[in-house]
Design goal:
The chain is an alpha/beta fold. It contains 15 helices and 8 strands. About 50% of the residues lie in helices and about 10% in strands. It has an 8-stranded mixed β-sheet, with helices on both faces.
């Protein structure tokens, strides 16, 4: 099968290498000439991975029409770019293309999940299905072939199984599932929890606090996801607790890094003044805040993160307020 990875960033490059390691026909599309040249000439993506050598068969291009004839197109771009990239590639896609999304979040204006955005934007005849390839994974580890497990989630299980076979190898194991709602919501909201985890670490809190954050954060994810039709068991899997653990505990996580800076300085001011990276949890916090308020879904951790990011509340005050909420049973 012929696959095209749209996005020469860290995750796009790591997934492309997995396909190359599997001796699959794959090419990377990127907007950055320096990244494309680095991949083609040096077998590196130095911006993201330093001196890590990539599979020598990997090639990259700046030509978006490379998607012509592709059986599988992987969207490895930020959530904010999903709609526009789909509009760009739709005229070039052949019928029944499998579109794989790896972004975790919501459309910034419509609040749609990424699979919904793709189905709305790609012509029906061009789309076999949307497969969400998501789970606990950092590109920095996948690219050096660390053992990793993630999910291929699709309403069309045969396409999920095809993606499972395409990407799985000795270091990357793919499971399949069909709970698109629960999986996508879990993968998105855990970014807000990762910001919270980073904030708490920046404030100086340690293991006990992180365990509490992850456990109570999971309850919020379940509460939100089940309200919108997700299955509770999904949150016990890779796109739920698995993704939550890795993003709340790792320095590789941009959301954790952002939170750590905010907590360390006890203010959000410098983060917004200087940040140049895509931190999906920042936009997600705003969307989850509004939707949970509209629907009466109790999300205290997400609410405090929103207050820090958008209302200027001090992180140390938020931590205390969470601890001093009315006492209750755990479940």
């Amino acid at each position: 099968m012929h696959s095209v990875i749209l996005g020469s960033g860290s995750w796009g490059t790591a997934l492309a290498q997995a396909l190359a390691d599997n001796k699959q026909d794959v090419i990377i599309y990127g907007k950055s000439q320096s990244e494309v040249d680095d991949i083609n000439q040096n077998h590196k993506n130095s911006k993201f991975f330093g001196d890590v050598l990539l599979n020598e068969t990997l090639v990259a291009t700046k030509d978006i029409t490379v998607v012509q004839g592709a059986d599988v197109v992987v969207l490895a771009v930020p959530t904010i770019a999903i709609e526009s990239i789909c509009q760009q590639i739709d005229p070039y896609l052949k019928d029944n293309t499998i579109v794989v999304n790896v972004s975790k979040g919501f459309h910034p204006d419509t609040n749609e999940r990424m699979s919904q955005v793709i189905r709305r934007t790609i012509s029906k005849e061009h789309l076999s299905s949307v497969v969400s390839l998501i789970g606990p994974s950092h590109a920095e580890e996948v690219v050096i072939r660390q053992l990793t497990t993630i999910d291929a989630i699709s309403l069309k299980i045969e396409d999920a199984k095809l993606i499972q076979e395409l990407f799985s190898n000795q270091y990357l194991r793919i499971y399949t599932g069909t709970d698109e709602i629960g999986s996508e919501l879990g993968a998105a909201i855990k970014n807000v929890m990762a910001i919270a985890s980073g904030i708490l670490s920046g404030l100086g809190y340690q293991d006990n606090t992180r365990a509490a954050l992850i456990t109570r954060g999971l309850q919020e994810m379940i509460r939100y996801g089940v309200f919108f039709g997700g299955q509770e068991k999904t949150f016990m899997g890779l796109t739920g607790i698995g993704d939550l653990i890795v993003t709340c505990s790792s320095i590789h996580s941009r959301n954790f890094q952002a939170g750590y800076q905010i907590g360390k300085e006890n203010t959000v001011k410098n983060f917004f003044a200087n940040n140049t990276k895509t931190v999906e949890g920042v936009r997600t916090a705003k969307i989850v805040h509004r939707i949970s308020q509209e629907n009466g879904i109790v999300m205290p951790i997400c609410e405090e993160v929103y207050q820090i990011l958008y209302e200027g509340k001090k992180p140390d005050t938020c931590a205390k307020d969470l601890m001093l909420r009315n006492l209750k049973e755990e479940f």
